[in-house]
Every structure is written in structure tokens, then in C-alpha cells.
Prior knowledge:
By secondary structure, this protein is mostly helical. It contains three helices and no strands. The model has no long low-confidence stretch (mean pLDDT about 80).
Amino acid sequence: MRSYRNLGRFFWLLLPLWFVSIPMAMAEDEPAKSPGLFERIGNTAKKAGNKIEQGFTKAGRKLEEKKVGEKVERKLKKAATKTAEGFKKAGDKIDKKLNN
Length: 100
């Protein structure tokens, strides 16, 4: 009776291994029809890269259409001019105070 229990336990312990090993053995016998894990990861990375590239291209076109570069350039020139005028006024005030 005791040997039947041990045999039953042994069977139930080996049953999950058997379920796992059969599909693995069958997969080894079949030729690889579907791409492997690394190949799928590579394909996904390529697709993501293409989407990112398309997004940057689209954003670049929008920036060109709105002439953002020209607007930024005008604003920087205006800021530089105002700064130069401010320094000139400050220099004139300092000269005035030092000369009087």
C-alpha cells in the first residue's frame, strides 16, 4: 500500500514536467517558421525607430511651415539690441555722474 502511495506521488510530481517537456520536444523537431525572440525584438525596435523618425520629420516640417527659426532670430536680435541700448544708457549715466 505504501509503495502505491509513493508511486502516485512520484507520478504527480513528474506530471507537470511531462506537460512542459512534450511541447518543448515537439518545438525542437519543427523547423523554425516564426521569428525568434531576438528577431522579434529587433523588428519591434526598427518599427519604433521608424515611428520616431517620422515624428521628427513631421515636427521639422511644422517648424519650417511656421517659420519658427526666423521668429526666434528676430526675437534674439531685438533682445540683443535692447540689451546694447540698456548698457549704453547705463554707461552714459555712469559717465555723467563721474564727470559732475
